[in-house]
C-alpha cells in the first residue's frame, strides 16, 4: 500500500445508500483555549502535570526570548537591522515551537519567527541576516532543519507539506512544523496547503499564531469564523485551540501533534491565541489602530510572567534563579549586540553566482561589468565616479 | 486614449504652490476621485484605519467611511477578484497591492479576467478598475519588497500600465487611471514616494491622460528613455553628461509615463532626431521593458540610428538584499557608461570583444 | 452603521476573560443530505410539501435540460461545438439554480453550467458561444444577470462576492449565486471568496455541485473532509448538505439561502451531492478512471426519474403529461439544432475593437495589417496566398 | 549550462526508428527519467489514473505507483508549493500544469520561491524541479486553453525556459530539464503533441542540453528565429521562400530550443552572416519574447544588419476563440510578408508611412 492510499476519505455514494463518513466531531476544537498554567486563577487542576525539567527549559527560553526581542528592536534603532518584526508577547509560541521539534523535524518560520529558529538552535546572528539585509538568508537550512524565513504570507505552508510528504515517501520519521499568522490564514496558500496535507496525510503541523492583527487589520476584519481552529474540520484535519501565552500548553499540544504526525496520524491545525505587544515592526505605529487598554489587558497575561508565576507556584523557581536567568539572557543579548555591531562582510559579486547552478554567459558578462565598475571606482581619479554618484 | 481629467481653470497657478510629496499627491488624487464619483471604492490590506503602509490612503476611511475605503482580508487574489465583481456591478474599484511581489497571488485574476473581461464580453462588462502597485527598489526593503514587475504587465494585452515620476504626474495620472474605463496597473515608484515638488493641490497641473510620454529635458546628442524611479537618475545623468565626452553631451530625457499604451510617436520622433538612444530601467534587462522599447526603436528608426540602442537595466538576478542593492540599481555612472558607448567616434567596438567568441 | 460594521466576529481577548464567540453548531451541515423527494422509499414524511406549480415547473425544466444536454453533446459529434461539458445527471442542480434566483439576482456559472443559464432564461444558442468557439461569450450579462461562463476554476467565486457586495453597498436587494465543482473547492480562490463573503456578509450563495470527480480525480483524492459543506464553519458561514439529484430539495435550500442573503443574513455554502453521468467532456474517456457499476448505481438515482416519480406519486403527472413534456423538449432541441447548424457570422476584425475602450495606435496598425491580408487573400491571384496556406 | 543527458552508444541508429509523436517521446522521457532516478516524482491534475489530458503521463502511475506519479488536488499554487518542499528534501519533482493559463495561480510560488530559492540560500536549497506547461494555440481550444506565457517566464531570473519543436528534442530536452539542478519551465507546444517523426526510443538522438539553439535549415539570405510551435511554420516558409523574391530567398531557420539561457552565440553568428533577421512566435508581440531577441540582435549585430530586425508575432490581444485563431497565429504568409520587407532593394519604406505621423 502506498502512502497515498492509506487514507480513506469522503467518497459520496448515491443518497439512498449514503455511507458513514469521517466523523466531524473529533476534528472540532475545544470550546476554550487549552491551558496548563491557567489564567489569573493560577495552577490548574486538570491536565497532566508537566515535568519540572521541561518547565525550567521553557522558562529559560522565554526569558532569553524576551530579551532577544528587545535587543533586536534596539538594533533597528542603531541602524544595524533594516527592520525587525518583534515577537514580544508571543514568546511562548516561539519557544514552544522551537523546543517541541524532534531533531530530524523541520521548522518553517515566517519573518516574525526568528525567535522560534533561535530556540531551535540557529545562530541568532545568522537568523537575522534577512532583516539586517546583508543577504536573504543566513543559516544552513539543511543542517539546522529550519527553512528560510518566509516573507510572502502563507507561501511556506505548502513547502512544509511537500517536505513532510517527501520525508514520508522516503520512509523517514520526520515531521514539519509550519508557522503562520492569523492574517496569513486568509491566503489561498493556507487553504491549499491544509488540503494537500489532509489528502496526502502528510506529517505536518500548522501552528497559527493568532496575535490579533495583520499589521493594522484586526481579526474581526480577517475572519468571521468561530475560531481559526474551526478551519480544520473543512479539510478533515483536527483543529486545536490553545492559550498561546501559555508556553507549557503550546508545547504540549505541539508535541502531541508532532508525535501523531510522525507516526502516520496525519496533520493537525493548532490555533494559539496570543497577542503582539509591540507594533508590527519597528516601522509601524500601532497607536494608529489600537487602543492602549487592549494592549494593557494582554500585558496582564504576559507569557513570561505567566510562566514565572507557574514555576514559582510549583516551587521550581525563586528570586535568585529568576535573576540568574535574566543575567544569562543579558549576557547573550550583549553577545548578540557585539556581533551585530560588526559590519557584515559584503561581496557585491555575490549577486551573480547563486542565480543558477552554472553561470550563464549573460550573467558572466554582467559580473564582469560590475567588477569593472568596482575597479574603476577604487582606482579611479578620486572624483568618486562609479561608487558614490547615484 | 485620452481620458484627460478636467482641471480647474487656474491649473498650475504658481501662486499657491507648496512643497508636496508624491505620496501626498497620490493621496489627494484618491480623495478627489472619491469626492467626484461615489462609485470609486478604495480597497486593500491596511488601507483603512492605518491609511496604508505608505500612507497613500491616509484619511480616506475617515472621510468616506469604511464602505468606500475598506480594509480587506489578507488575500490578494481575493481582493482583485472581488474588485472584478464590483466593477461588473458598475463600481470603480481602486485596489492597493501592498508591495509589488504581493501582487503575484492575484496574477491569475489579472491575466485571466481583469485584462480580458471587456474583450470577452464585447464591451458588455468593462473593467474600470485601478490596481495600485508600489514598485521598484532603493528603499532598503528586504526580499520581495523591491521587485519591478512591469515586464509581466506589459506582456498582458488588455490592461494599461502607467507609472508617474513626478508629483504632478502622480496626481494627474492617477486621476486619469481611475477615470479610465479600462483596467490600469498603476505602478508607484516606492523610492519617489517622498520626493518633493512645489505643487498646488487646488490647481494641479493638467496631465494629457494615459498614453503620452513627455520630454523631461530636451537634448540633441542622444535620447535617454526611461520611466518611474529612473527618471531622476536620467535627469541627473543628463546634467553630468554636459561635462563628459569630447565636447559634452546634450542628452534628451523622455519620461514614458505610460508603458501601455506606448507612445511610439514621441519616442520615435526624438530618436530620429538624436540618432542615439539608451533605455534605462530598474527591472532586470533580459526580456524586460527595455527589450520591447529597444526593438521598436531599432525597427522604426533603423536608418536614423548612429549606434545600437543600448539598455541600462537591473541585472538578470533576483532583487538583491538591502546592503547590495546599490550595485544592482542603474545609477548615473552606468547610464553615462552606456552613453559613452554610443559610437561617438567612428569604429564600433564591442563591450566584451572576446566574450563567448561573438 | 456601514455594511462592513454590521457583523461582529471573532475578536479574541486574553484567555482569562475569553468571551463567547459565534456558536459553531448552527454552521455545521446536516448529517445526511437534505432531501424532499426521498430515495427509493418515495414520498418523504417530513418537510413542507412543495407547491404543485413549482414541482411541475421543475419537472418541465429537468426534462428539457436532459434533452438539451443530449442535443449539445450530439452537436459536438457534428463538429458544431468545439467541446461540451455535459451536466447530464446534474440537471436537478442546474435547473434549481436557474429557477431559484430572483429577477435581480445574478448567476455565476462555470463552463459546465450552461443549463443553469438556460434555465435562468438565457438563449441556448447564445449560451453556447464559448463552446462553439465563435466568441468567448455570447449573451448580454447585464441584461440576463448571468456572468460569463467561467473556465479558470473557482475564479468566478470572488466575482460573485464582489458583485453581491457592490449591490449591497448600493442598497439594492440583490443576491448572487455562484456555482463551483467539487474539484474547484481545492483552489485558493474558493477559500478567499468564502472568507471575503463571510467577513463582509455579502449576499452570496455558493453552490458546490459535488459530482464526484474533477475530470478523472475522484473526491477522495480531492479532500479528506467529512463533507464539503463542513468547510463553511471555518469561515463562519452556514454549510448545508443536500441531495443534488433532488431538484425540489436543491430548489428549497437555494431559495432559503438566497432569501437570507438578500435580507442581510450573509452567505451560505451549499453542497449538492450529485454525479456526472457522462464523461468530463466529449473529449474525455471516463472508462479510464471509473467503473460502470458506480455509474449504474447513480443512474438508479437519476434526477429526472426521481422527479417524475415524485410527481406521479403526488398525482401531478400522468403518462400523457410526461410525453407532452418530452415532445416539447424535443421541439426545443430541434430548434437548437437548427439554429446551431447555421454557421455563425464571423468577423476577423472583431479581434481588435474590444481589447480596450479606445483602440491604441498599435492595435489599429495590426487591424490594418489583418485587413490588408484578408483583402489580399480575397482579391489575390487565386494561388490561395494569405488564407489557405498555413 | 550543459546538463547533457548521456545517450546509449547507438544513439540515433536509423535501423530501429519508427514513427513516434512528440507526446510519446515526452512520455518516454518521463518514464526513462523515473527509471533512472527514484527521486523523480511526477505530479499534477489527472496525471495518475488518466495519464494526463494529453496522455503525456500515460502508464506512469501503473508502472511506478501513485506515490511516484500522483494525482493532486486541484490547486496549482499548492501543487507547485508542495513540489518546492519536496525539492527541499532532495526529490526531483516534475509538475504538470494542465494548460498554460492554469499555471497562473502558481505564479507567486514560481516567482517568489522556485526562481529564488537557490539564490536566497546561496545554493543551500537548490530547486531541481521541472514544470511542464502545455502552451500555445492552434488546437481549437476555448478561452484560457491556448495562451503563450513564455514572456512571463523569460522575465523571471532564476529559471530556465525550454521548449522543444521536434520529437527527438522533446525527449532530449525533457531529460535534460529533469536532470538539471535548476528549475526549468518546460513549455510543450500543444499543437505539436501529435506531430510525428521517425524515432528510436531505445537510442534517442543526443541533444546538447539546455541552452543551445540549433540551425534547423541553413540559409544565406536572412535568418528566421523561432521556437516551439512556430518552427514548422518557419521551415515551411523557408521552403516557400525559394520561389519568392527576385531570385528566391534562401532562409536560415534557427530553433532556439531554450529561451533562457539564450544562445546568443548561435543567433548572432547567423545574423552577422545573413545580415537580416525575422523573429517569429505566437505570443503577443508587444513586450513578448521577440522584443528581447530583436533588441539583442540589433545591439550585437548593429553593423551587420541590412535591414531592421522584424517581428512576426501574435497580435496584442487576448487569445482569440477557436473559429478566429487562424487569423491570429503567425502563418507562412505573414512570415513571408515580413521577409519581403527586409529592404532587399535599396530605399527603405515604412509599412504604414502615414500611421500616426511617424
Ligand atoms: C502575500 C503577502 N501579502 C502581503 C504581505 C505584507 N504583509 C507583511 S506582514 C503582513 C501582516 C501579516 O499578518 P499575520 O499573518 O497575522 O502575521 P503577523 O505579522 O501578525 O505575525 C502583511 C499584510 C506579505 N508579506 N505577503
Ligand atoms: C485553474 C484551473 N485549473 C485547471 C483547469 C482544468 N480543468 C478544467 S475542468 C477540471 C476539473 C474540474 O472539476 P470540478 O471542479 O469538480 O468540476 P466539474 O468539471 O466536475 O463540474 C479541470 C482540472 C481549469 N479549468 N482551471
Ligand atoms: Mg497576526
Ligand atoms: Mg466535479
Automatic annotation (TrEMBL), chains A, C:
<dbReference type="InterPro" id="IPR029061">
    <property type="entry name" value="THDP-binding"/>
</dbReference>
<feature type="region of interest" description="Disordered">
    <location>
        <begin position="1"/>
        <end position="45"/>
    </location>
</feature>
<keyword id="KW-0670">Pyruvate</keyword>
<dbReference type="InterPro" id="IPR017596">
    <property type="entry name" value="PdhA/BkdA"/>
</dbReference>
<protein>
    <submittedName>
        <fullName>Pyruvate dehydrogenase (Acetyl-transferring) E1 component subunit alpha</fullName>
    </submittedName>
</protein>
<feature type="domain" description="Dehydrogenase E1 component">
    <location>
        <begin position="63"/>
        <end position="348"/>
    </location>
</feature>
<keyword id="KW-0560">Oxidoreductase</keyword>
<dbReference type="InterPro" id="IPR050771">
    <property type="entry name" value="Alpha-ketoacid_DH_E1_comp"/>
</dbReference>
<dbReference type="InterPro" id="IPR001017">
    <property type="entry name" value="DH_E1"/>
</dbReference>
<dbReference type="Pfam" id="PF00676">
    <property type="entry name" value="E1_dh"/>
</dbReference>
<keyword id="KW-0786">Thiamine pyrophosphate</keyword>
UniProtKB/TrEMBL annotation, chains B, D:
<protein>
    <recommendedName>
        <fullName>3-methyl-2-oxobutanoate dehydrogenase (2-methylpropanoyl-transferring)</fullName>
        <ecNumber>1.2.4.4</ecNumber>
    </recommendedName>
</protein>
<keyword id="KW-0560">Oxidoreductase</keyword>
<dbReference type="InterPro" id="IPR009014">
    <property type="entry name" value="Transketo_C/PFOR_II"/>
</dbReference>
<dbReference type="InterPro" id="IPR033248">
    <property type="entry name" value="Transketolase_C"/>
</dbReference>
<dbReference type="Pfam" id="PF02780">
    <property type="entry name" value="Transketolase_C"/>
</dbReference>
<dbReference type="Pfam" id="PF02779">
    <property type="entry name" value="Transket_pyr"/>
</dbReference>
<dbReference type="InterPro" id="IPR029061">
    <property type="entry name" value="THDP-binding"/>
</dbReference>
<feature type="region of interest" description="Disordered">
    <location>
        <begin position="1"/>
        <end position="20"/>
    </location>
</feature>
<dbReference type="GO" id="GO:0016491">
    <property type="term" value="F:oxidoreductase activity"/>
</dbReference>
<dbReference type="InterPro" id="IPR005475">
    <property type="entry name" value="Transketolase-like_Pyr-bd"/>
</dbReference>
<feature type="domain" description="Transketolase-like pyrimidine-binding">
    <location>
        <begin position="20"/>
        <end position="195"/>
    </location>
</feature>
Amino acid at each position: 500500500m502506498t502512502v497515498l492510499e492509506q487514507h480513506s476519505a469522503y467518497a459520496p455514494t448515491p443518497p439512498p445508500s449514503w455511507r458513514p463518513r469521517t466523523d466531524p466531531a473529533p476534528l472540532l476544537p475545544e470550546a476554550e483555549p487549552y491551558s496548563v498554567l491557567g489564567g489569573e486563577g493560577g495552577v490548574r487542576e486538570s491536565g497532566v502535570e508537566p515535568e519540572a525539567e521541561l518547565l525550567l527549559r521553557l522558562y529559560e527560553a522565554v526569558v532569553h526570548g524576551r530579551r532577544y526581542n528587545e535587543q533586536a528592536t534596539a538594533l533597528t534603532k542603531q541602524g544595524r537591522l533594516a527592520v525587525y518584526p518583534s515577537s514580544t508577547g508571543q514568546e511562548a509560541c516561539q519557544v514552544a515551537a522551537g523546543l517541541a521539534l524532534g531533531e530530524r523535524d523541520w521548522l518553517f518560520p515566517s519573518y516574525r519567527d526568528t525567535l522560534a529558529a533561535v530556540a531551535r538552535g540557529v545562530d541568532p546572528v545568522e537568523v537575522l541576516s534577512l532583516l539586517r539585509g546583508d543577504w536573504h538568508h543566513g543559516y544552513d537550512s539543511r543542517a539546522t532543519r529550519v527553512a528560510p524565513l518566509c516573507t510572502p504570507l502563507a507561501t511556506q505552508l505548502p513547502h512544509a507539506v511537500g517536505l513532510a510528504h517527501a520525508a514520508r515517501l522516503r520512509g523517514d520519521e520526520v515531521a514539519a512544523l509550519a508557522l503562520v499568522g492569523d492574517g496569513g490564514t486568509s491566503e489561498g496558500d493556507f487553504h491549499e496547503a491544509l488540503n494537500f496535507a489532509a489528502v496526502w496525510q502528510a506529517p505536518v503541523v500548522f501552528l497559527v499564531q493568532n496575535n490579533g492583527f495583520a499589521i493594522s487589520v484586526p481579526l474581526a476584519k480577517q475572519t468571521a469564523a468561530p475560531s481559526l481552529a474551526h478551519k480544520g474540520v473543512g479539510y478533515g484535519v483536527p483543529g486545536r485551540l490553545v492559550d498561546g501565552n501559555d508556553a507549557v500548553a503550546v508545547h504540549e499540544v505541539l508535541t502531541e501533534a508532532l508525535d501523531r504526525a510522525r507516526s502516520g496520524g496525519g496533520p493537525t491545525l493548532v490555533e494559539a491565541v496570543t497577542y503582539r505587544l509591540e507594533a508590527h515592526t519597528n516601522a509601524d505605529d500601532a497607536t494608529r489602530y489600537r487602543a492602549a487598554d487592549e494592549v494593557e489587558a494582554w500585558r496582564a497575561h504576559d507569557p513570561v510572567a505567566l510562566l514565572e508565576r507557574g514555576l514559582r507556584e510549583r516551587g521550581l523557581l525563586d528570586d535568585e534563579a529568576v535573576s540568574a536567568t535574566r543575567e544569562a539572557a543579558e549576557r547573550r543579548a550583549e553577545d548578540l549586540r557585539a556581533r551585530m555591531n560588526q559590519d557584515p562582510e559584503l561581496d557585491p559579486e555575490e549577486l551573480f553566482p547563486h542565480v543558477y547552478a552554472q553561470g550563464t554567459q549573460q550573467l558572466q558578462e554582467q559580473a564582469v561589468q560590475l567588477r569593472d565598475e568596482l575597479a574603476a571606482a577604487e582606482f579611479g581619479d578620486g572624483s568618486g565616479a562609479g561608487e558614490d554618484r547615484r | 486614449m485620452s481620458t484627460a481629467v478636467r482641471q480647474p481653470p487656474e491649473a498650475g497657478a504658481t501662486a499657491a504652490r507648496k512643497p508636496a510629496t508624491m505620496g501626498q499627491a497620490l493621496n489627494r488624487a484618491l480623495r478627489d476621485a472619491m469626492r467626484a464619483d461615489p462609485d470609486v471604492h478604495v480597497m486593500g490590506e491596511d488601507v483603512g484605519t492605518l491609511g496604508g503602509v505608505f500612507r497613500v490612503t491616509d484619511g480616506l476611511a475617515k472621510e468616506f467611511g469604511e464602505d468606500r475605503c475598506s480594509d480587506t482580508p489578507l488575500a490578494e487574489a481575493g481582493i482583485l477578484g472581488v474588485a472584478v465583481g464590483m466593477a461588473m456591478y458598475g463600481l470603480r474599484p481602486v485596489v492597493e497591492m501592498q508591495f509589488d511581489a504581493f501582487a503575484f497571488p492575484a496574477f491569475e485574476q489579472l491575466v485571466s479576467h481583469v485584462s480580458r473581461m471587456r474583450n470577452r464580453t464585447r464591451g458588455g462588462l468593462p473593467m474600470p478598475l485601478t490596481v495600485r502597485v508600489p514598485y521598484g527598489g532603493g528603499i532598503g526593503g528586504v526580499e520581495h519588497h523591491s521587485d519591478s514587475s512591469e515586464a509581466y504587465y506589459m506582456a498582458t494585452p488588455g490592461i494599461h500600465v502607467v507609472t508617474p515620476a513626478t508629483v504632478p504626474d502622480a496626481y494627474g495620472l492617477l486621476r486619469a487611471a481611475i477615470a479610465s474605463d479600462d483596467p490600469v496597473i498603476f505602478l508607484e515608484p516606492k523610492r519617489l514616494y517622498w520626493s518633493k515638488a512645489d505643487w498646488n493641490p487646488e490647481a494641479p497641473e493638467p496631465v494629457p491622460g494615459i498614453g503620452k510620454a513627455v520630454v523631461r529635458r530636451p537634448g540633441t546628442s542622444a535620447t535617454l528613455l526611461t520611466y518611474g524611479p529612473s527618471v531622476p537618475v536620467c535627469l541627473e545623468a543628463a546634467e553630468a553628461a554636459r561635462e563628459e565626452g569630447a565636447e559634452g553631451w546634450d542628452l534628451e530625457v523622455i519620461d514614458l509615463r505610460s508603458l501601455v499604451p506606448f507612445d511610439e510617436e514621441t519616442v520615435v520622433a526624438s530618436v530620429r532626431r538624436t540618432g542615439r538612444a539608451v533605455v534605462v530601467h530598474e527591472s532586470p534587462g533580459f526580456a524586460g521593458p527595455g527589450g520591447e522599447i529597444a526593438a521598436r526603436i531599432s525597427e522604426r528608426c533603423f536608418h536614423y540610428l548612429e549606434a545600437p540602442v543600448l539598455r541600462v537595466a537591473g541585472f538578470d538576478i533576483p532583487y538583491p538584499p538591502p546592503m547590495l542593492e546599490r550595485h544592482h540599481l542603474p545609477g548615473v555612472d552606468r547610464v553615462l557608461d552606456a552613453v559613452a558607448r554610443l559610437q561617438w567616434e567612428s569604429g564600433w567596438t564591442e563591450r566584451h570583444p572576446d566574450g563567448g567568441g561573438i
